[in-house]
Amino acid sequence: MCACLVQRISFIGKRMKRFTLFTFLYLALGVCLTAIALGYPNLPSSLQTSLFINAGASYLVCILSTFPFWRETTIRFYHRRNSAVILPWLVIGLNIVWMIWDAQSQNWSMEAILRAFSRLLVVLLFAEIIVITWQVNSEH
User: Fold this and answer.
1) If residue 26 lies in a helix (H) or strand (E), which one and from where to where?
2) How does pLDDT run across 13-36, given as a tens digit for each residue?
3) How many other CB atoms sit within 10 Å of the CB of residue 65?
4) Cα gap 58→55, rounded to integer Å
5) pTM for the predicted model, two decimal places
6) CB 58, CB 33: distance < 8 Å
7) Distance CA 38, CA 7 (A)
8) Which of 25, 33, 72, 121 has the fewest C-beta atoms lying within 10 Å of its C-beta?
9) Radius of gyration for the alpha carbons in the chain, expressed in angstroms and rounded
10) Could you state, in order of their start, the residue ranges of all structural domains in the chain?
């Protein structure tokens, strides 16, 4: 039983080769969103549910980002659609503008800030795409 478990862990270890800065950022975001959702029980239930869903998505992305297919898929998409280089920048910019506008329009209320904070996963995903494309460009 123990030998089988060690063999399985070693197989998984060989498949999970890449721990990047973004892996830890996804994990940290998930922990922060979970802590906020649990630490403020008087939040509206829809906001608390949104925080938990985004935390779960962040944990899932954290795990997926350790597998080689994550980077390979991004590289394949980049090579296929070379004209889509500006897309990640646009998504990040629009998300940041939307987050600031939403929080400011509601006088920086706690709910507005937390709604904006839960959108950080999208910003992190597209920032990782930008970093991967920079690495691919520097390799060529």
Assistant:
1) helix 21-39
2) 455 456 788 999 999 999 999 999
3) 22
4) 5
5) 0.78
6) yes
7) 37
8) 72
9) 18
10) 18-139
